[in-house]
Automatic annotation (TrEMBL):
Name of the gene encoding the protein in the UniProt record: rex
Stated role: Modulates transcription in response to changes in cellular NADH/NAD(+) redox state.
SMART domains given in the database record: CoA_binding
Source organism per UniProt: Insulibacter thermoxylanivorax
Protein name: Redox-sensing transcriptional repressor Rex
Family: Belongs to the transcriptional regulatory Rex family.
Keyword Nucleotide-binding attached: no
């Protein structure tokens, strides 16, 4: 793999989509897959898929396709998911609890390792084997557990405050579900998740 390559964000965002389907194939004991099959299933252009994957080295064999397990391993390496990445979630409300209960760790190696909230009724509750901790323990816990990513599921009015505390604690990336833009130093990567906007924009396309 050309490690110094700067990979475009669109390619990086497609890799988990490939990975998810490859994992599905692997569960069904499928050993090889062609770019055509991947393209059909994922509604992507096979040439685009070949281009994306060739970017990281020659994985496919002409006439045979890609070895599913090998491709899974390579994509995980590229995404750095060959190591466990610990995650903290802040805001144990409706959305936060649902996310904690979704067990992405088994397949994807990103693990919610700590949950924080500032409400006395929430602190001490157990969600999917995790005890909700007060914010006062955030800094220490993040460092002790080598937590590198924070998920924000607090009200929008609290999101910046929480983001500041995550940055202060040494987090490297944030996934923000609160409907507001947060300001962070340049070295911190922020992604926004907004399925409400997706849903609302869908309305435009209805007859
Ligand atoms: N991205 C999306 O599509 C989408 C969808 C649903 C909700 N949301 C957003 O997600 C957030 C959570 O929604 P919800 O329905 O779970 O709300 P909720 O009120 O059920 O939960 C919010 C939780 O955050 C906690 N909290 C508030 N301030 C805090 C702080 N400073 N530090 C730590 N914890 C704090 C509260 O005690 C509560 O447990 C909101 O911002 C909401 O707008 C986004």
């Amino acid at each position: 793999m050309k490690s110094s390559l700067k990979i475009s964000e669109t390619v990086v965002r497609r890799l988990p989509i490939y990975l998810r389907y490859l994992n599905e194939l692997s569960m069904r004991n499928v050993q090889t897959v062609s770019s055509q099959e991947l393209g059909n299933r994922l509604d992507l252009n096979p040439a685009q898929i070949r281009k994306d994957l060739a970017y990281f080295g020659e994985f496919g064999k002409k006439g045979i396709g890609y070895d599913v397990s090998y491709l899974i391993e390579k994509i995980r390496q590229i995404l750095k998911l060959d190591q466990t990445i610990n995650v903290a979630l802040i805001g144990a409300g409706n959305l936060g609890v649902a996310l904690c209960n979704y067990n992405m760790y088994q397949k994807d190696n990103m693990k919610i390792q700590a949950v924080f909230d500032n409400h006395p009724d929430k602190i001490g509750q157990t969600i999917n084997h995790l005890t909700v901790l007060p914010l006062s323990q955030m800094h220490e816990k993040i460092r002790a557990e080598n937590i590198r990513v924070g998920i924000i599921t607090v009200p929008a009015s609290e999101a910046q405050n929480v983001a500041d505390q995550l940055v202060e604690a040494g987090i490297e990336g944030i996934l923000n579900f609160a409907p507001t833009i947060i300001k962070v130093p340049e070295h911190i990567r922020v992604h926004y998740a907004d399925f409400t906007a997706d849903l609302l924009s869908l309305a435009y396309y209805l007859e």
